[in-house]
């Protein structure tokens, strides 16, 4: 379903989400702040021409520029407005009837070198109906007058944006006696006449007068709340003004969450090169596949008639099979990236705004929890945080985060605070997992580091190229990447302290604790020294990775939000492994982790702590204040969950294979949602099937999950090729990767220069 002309949809169709949120058909509407409105309309002249209902729209529009404006002045006269700071002029001209006077005013802008308004909004009819008591002669005269005005409007439309506002319906039961002749039947007749004349006039004209008909739809839903049955309630007028602002300003300001009226962004040089690369990969793979198929036919095993022995086909060389795997992976990736681009960069599929309701968040949560419990299996091992359990943990957290994003639940503070704990839990696992590996295995080799970095960053680097987005845009991957390098540096620098060495001398344990204390001190210093943090990450080429909108503030904010939780994960791993080594915990199947008494006490404390945090998070009133406390207290709920999940032997011995399956592709799910499940860089929702919200979510979710799973397979395949175990081969590959990033930086600099 092609998106089509989103401007036309914005002006003509849509529906209400809830009571006040207007959703245009097929596209997203940005909510403009007064500063954004001023930036868009600087040095502009806007004119509203018409009756009292157009005057209401005029006031709602100028309140987007200056919210302090009061509705006062001569109701049946012209009203000027000027914002001197931005040189914006907005005028309301009182012409309640479409007549000679209105025609003369419009004609004056078409003659000579008179400055023409940049935006003109015209509309009138109810006064004609009222003054002439709804007579047919008045309608005939109305048609004649519009016919004479239409060519002038078309002429103005060549250099200005001209909108004809159709008449909104009235609530007949509430109309005063003097307005009883204004019926919806009469209004429909006047609107039909205006549309027919304007459309017939525009067929032969190069420029077109845009018909502002969406106000009719809005009024049909809200006119019952009118104070007099004729004029719209304030919320509806504000919606109409916001639509006008989106129609004009979206192509200028290009807001991420305002897809209506935005042209498709042009392909960058890097995107063109990526397209060529993937095209060549697809062609190369097809050629190799054809060659192999022909060779297979020639060497097809057959029975030797003389000896009766079967001849074996020739075995392909390893180089060819590696090349084929490489091209096969890039071939699939190219097709997947095409889908990404079509979903979130081309104006092919529709996009809609999010709208939060409690049911849209909590019902899916209950549904997936029931599914997860249904797929319960025994674990292969019963250790604390074993592989199946951590995959399960990642899986259900990722599903909850996905539901949180698509439902727009960030507007509900208690849910937001609990989701922040889930993000912290991911980072806790990063600290726990990587510390455990380095501490137990003592493997600080380049191969391990490159494997982890490749698996974490491959998809994001490809998306940065294809979707023309900065690395920091996918904030979670930079976060886990930097924390992995911090963990590696902490344990790898002299003296390298690992479990094997520490078992020989207990003093090494104190040495490791000293390292962790130093790490905590550095984290504490950087979290309260924004200047020092920004200096570190403002050096080129680091700045290219961590800047967003020209500065690293967003990166500092994201890092600071969960600054202690990785340290907590490392410390927990150290304590747990120390207790395990000294056999102070029981990890047998069905056995409680500690003695019954200690286990019961710890379980009680954990349940109370878990509940206390939830109560505190649910009572949050201010997001900023709660975010300040979050880094210090999030670990309470994380540790409480770990103890509740692991102390009882039976609970530790089972896991949900449903959640674990999603946990294995959790990183891909988190990243892919940006473009092929959500839309407009997570600000909206992708609409593949318009008009059927539930069916659309099912279809887009199925494709999204399949794509994430496929990308996970591609990443694993490429990791074996790009990051080999042989050190000399690995060094060559690293030089190639360095060359690739050097080229990327060069082309990126060229792009930035051409944009400026």
Overall radius of gyration: 33 Å
Helical content, roughly? 55-70%
Strand content: 5-15%
Q: Give a count of the beta strands, DSSP E runs of length 2 or more.
A: 13
Mean pLDDT: 91
Count of helical stretches: 29
Outline type: elongated
Main beta-sheet annotation? 6 strands, mixed
Kindly give the count of domains.
3
Uncertain spans: 302-319
Query: First CA to last CA: what distance?
Result: 36 Å
What does this structure look like?
The protein is α/β, with parallel strands linked by helices and 756 residues long. It folds into three domains: 27-253, SGNH hydrolase (Rossmann fold, 3-Layer(aba) Sandwich); 323-723, no CATH class; 727-755. Helices cover 62% and strands 7% of the residues. It is built from 29 helices and 13 strands. The strands form four sheets. A six-stranded mixed sheet has the order 4-5-3-6-7-8, sandwiched between helices. α27 (666-676) packs across α28 (693-722). The longest helix is centred in the middle third of the chain and has 30 residues, at 269-298. It is elongated, with a radius of gyration of 33 Å. The model is unreliable at 302-319 (pLDDT under 50).
């Amino acid at each position: 379903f092609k998106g089509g002309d989103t401007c036309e949809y914005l002006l003509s169709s849509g529906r209400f989400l809830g009571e006040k949120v207007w959703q245009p058909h097929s596209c997203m509407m940005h909510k403009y702040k007064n500063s954004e409105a001023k930036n868009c309309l600087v040095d502009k002249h806007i004119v509203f021409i018409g009756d009292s209902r157009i005057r209401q729209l005029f006031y709602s529009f100028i309140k987007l520029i200056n919210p302090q404006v009061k509705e006062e002045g001569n109701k049946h006269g012209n009203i000027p407005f000027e914002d001197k700071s931005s040189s914006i002029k907005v005028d309301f001209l009182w012409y309640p009837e479409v007549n000679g006077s209105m025609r003369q005013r419009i004609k004056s802008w078409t003659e000579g070198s008179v400055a023409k308004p940049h935006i003109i909004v015209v509309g009138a009819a109810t006064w004609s109906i009222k003054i002439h008591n709804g007579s047919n002669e008045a309608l005939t005269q109305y048609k004649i007058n519009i016919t004479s005005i239409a060519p002038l409007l078309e002429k103005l439309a060549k250099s200005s944006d001209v909108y004809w506002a159709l008449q909104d319906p009235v609530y007949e039961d509430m109309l005063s006696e003097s307005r009883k002749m204004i019926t919806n039947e009469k209004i429909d007749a006047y609107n039909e006449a205006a549309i027919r004349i304007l459309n017939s006039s525009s067929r032969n004209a190069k420029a077109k007068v845009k018909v502002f008909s969406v106000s009719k739809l809005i009024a049909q839903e809200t006119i019952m709340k009118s104070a007099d049955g004729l004029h719209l309630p304030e919320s509806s007028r504000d919606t109409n003004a916001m639509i006008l602002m989106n129609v004009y300003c979206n192509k200028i300001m290009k807001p991420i969450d305002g897809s209506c009226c935005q042209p498709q962004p042009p392909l960058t040089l890097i995107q063109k090169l990526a397209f060529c690369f993937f095209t060549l990969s697809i062609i190369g793979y097809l050629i190799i596949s054809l060659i192999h198929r022909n060779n297979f036919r020639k060497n097809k095993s057959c029975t030797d008639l003389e000896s009766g022995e079967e001849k074996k086909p020739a075995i392909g060389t390893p180089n060819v099979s590696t090349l084929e795997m490489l091209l096969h992976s890039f071939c699939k990736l190219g097709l997947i990236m095409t889908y990404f681009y079509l979903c979130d960069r081309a104006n092919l599929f529709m996009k809609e705004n999010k709208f939060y309701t409690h049911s849209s968040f909590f019902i899916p949560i209950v549904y997936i929890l029931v599914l997860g419990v249904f797929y319960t299996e025994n674990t292969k091992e019963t250790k604390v945080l074993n592989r199946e359990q951590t995959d399960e943990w990642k899986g259900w957290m990722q599903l909850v985060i996905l539901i949180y994003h698509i439902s727009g639940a960030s507007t509900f503070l208690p849910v937001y605070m609990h989701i922040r704990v889930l993000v912290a839990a991911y980072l806790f696992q990063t600290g726990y997992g990587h510390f455990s590996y380095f501490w137990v295995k003592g493997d600080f080799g380049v191969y391990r580091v490159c494997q982890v970095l490749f698996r974490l960053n491959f998809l994001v680097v490809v998306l940065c190229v294809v979707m023309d987005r900065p690395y920091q845009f996918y904030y979670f991957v930079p976060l886990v990447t930097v924390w992995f390098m911090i963990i590696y540096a902490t344990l790898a620098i002299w003296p390298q302290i690992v479990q094997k060495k520490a078992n020989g001398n207990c003093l090494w344990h104190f040495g490791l604790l000293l390292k962790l204390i130093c790490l905590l001190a550095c984290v504490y210093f950087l979290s309260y020294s924004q200047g020092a943090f920004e200096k570190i990450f403002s050096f080129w080429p680091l700045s290219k990775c961590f800047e967003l909108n020209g500065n690293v503030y967003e990166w500092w904010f994201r890092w600071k939000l969960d600054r202690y939780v990785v340290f907590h994960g490392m410390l927990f791993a150290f304590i747990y492994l120390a207790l395990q080594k000294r056999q102070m915990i029981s990890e047998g199947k069905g056995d409680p982790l500690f003695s019954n008494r200690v286990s019961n006490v710890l379980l009680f404390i954990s349940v109370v702590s878990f509940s206390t945090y939830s109560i505190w998070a649910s009572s949050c009133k201010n997001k900023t204040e709660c975010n300040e406390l979050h880094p210090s207290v999030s670990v309470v709920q994380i540790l409480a969950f770990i103890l509740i999940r692991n102390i009882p032997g039976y609970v530790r011995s089972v896991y949900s294979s449903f959640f674990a399956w999603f946990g294995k592709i959790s990183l891909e799910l988190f990243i892919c949602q940006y473009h092929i499940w959500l839309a407009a860089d997570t600000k909206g929702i992708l609409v593949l099937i318009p008009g059927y919200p539930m069916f659309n979510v099912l279809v887009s979710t199925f494709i999204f999950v399949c794509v994430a799973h496929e990308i996970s397979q591609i990443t694993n395949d490429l990791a074996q090729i790009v990051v080999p175990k042989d050190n000399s081969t690995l060094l060559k590959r690293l030089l190639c990767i360095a060359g690739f990033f050097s080229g990327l930086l060069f082309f990126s600099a060229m792009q930035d220069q051409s944009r400026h």
